[in-house]
Fold each of these.
Amino acid sequence: MDCFYEGPNFLVIHPDECIDCALCEPECPVEAIFSEDEVPAEQVKFVELNAELADVWPNITQKKAALPDAAEWDGVADKLQYLER
């Protein structure tokens, strides 16, 4: 789907463009993608953030390799403070 947008260190899914097909969920290496009706309560704030950033970041349509430091960030709590806009 063409609902993914890429920022400097973050990917977002435009909630209005996502068709909730769930194909991307098992592909996410950090299990950060949820169906619209299964978003955990503590993650709901990211739905609005995704919509906001998808309106300004470029669309990506092909899978890319993970960032070189991706493994270091896996499991780190409170990463939102490091979001680069």
Note: The chain is about 15% helix and 10% strand.
Amino acid sequence: MNFIKLYLIIVLLGLCKISLSQDVHWSQFNDNQLFQNPAHAGHFNGDYRFITNYRNQWKSVTIPFSTFSASMDMRKNNFGVGVLFFHDQAGDGKFKTIEAQVNLSYQLNLVKDSSHVLRFGLNAGLNHRQLNWNKLYFDNQYNGYVFDPTLPTNENYQSDSKSNVSIGFGMMHEWKKRDRFKIVSGIAAYNLNQPNQGFYSDVIKRDIRYTSFVKGTFQLNPKWDVVPSIQYVQQGIYRELLIGSSFKYYLIDTPKKYQALYIGGWNRGVDASFLSLGMDYNDLFVGISYDINYSKLVPASRMRGGFEFAARYIIRMFKPKKILHRVCPDFI
């Protein structure tokens, strides 16, 4: 148990740093598990899990930043494996980031009834970045009166793309008293090898991304749960602290049919707040959120941030009941 206490102290220290704004993020961080921590691979009740996320932001300011991810993971006994695909495009130059990751996890039961569980995860990713120089504008293309795209830019491009490999590690702890009373926490570090992402001869290391989170589920009454969560992310000079909660209302909760609604709100440091709505329908979840920006960008954004969508589907394979022995009739 001393190891668990030390682990929780590390998580809380990671959460207690000063928060600054960060542009690239997921608001619905609880619904993009493999991006949050590789130990999440296989951490669900079922056999196969599929998750998609899409985000579109800053449409009111400039060319929208568009982000899409898709993941699939599965579990087998105490092991989990998952793959994640990530695509981001931003700005006039159509700056693209494409990444594919593989995640492996292992579950260690600390007690026989599995009420205390540790999970360890490994991450390996292939990252590709590309910029379309022809979409950018330069001073040399102004002829003194108007912009002329046919004029040469006089820029010497050494490269328009860069690829590298990254590795990461994560760890999680779950304490579960019952299905509607549990606490999950985790820490993770991505890009541990700090690969070179520079387009030129200069070496520009990709900063390590540290993530800490704590999430709880607590039953209020037979129909309502409160689901608070907090996440802290640090990458280089960037900081991001998200804190908030959702409330879950059970419409139907029977062994053969299950439906529930979610409504919640979170705050992201001095940058923005967002509201979220979601619904469980048996093994399908869909969620939508909207960011309300109140940073120094308000004169341009007019407090408009961006929409984000999430969907999750879990497949449960039919498992025939094991029969230890059969009672044969007398006539056999």
Note: Residues 2-315 form a domain with the Porin fold (CATH 2.40.160.40).
